[in-house]
Design a protein that fits this description.
Layout (H helix, E strand, L loop, with lengths): L6 H13 L8 E2 L10 E2 L1 H11 L5 H12 L3
Antiparallel strand pairs: 1-2
Helix pairs in contact: 1-2, 1-3
Amino acid sequence: MAPTLTIEEITAKLESFEQDPTMVTKGAYSPSAVDYPDNHYPFVQVHLAYLKKHQKINAAHYISNLEIMIKQR
């Protein structure tokens, strides 16, 4: 069985992606993102919102796949 991650562990991993210059971590525009400059959700918030909305997704697998997809080659 895959290990379950806490919200703090997920946030820390996403933040480490954001700080890594070899990762492509772009935020996303949303007209409802009024708390953020230019209505852009930060990278971390985009993926946390996705995981909160889709709670049946295995977060460890999601993070692992995301890391592969955003790595610059």
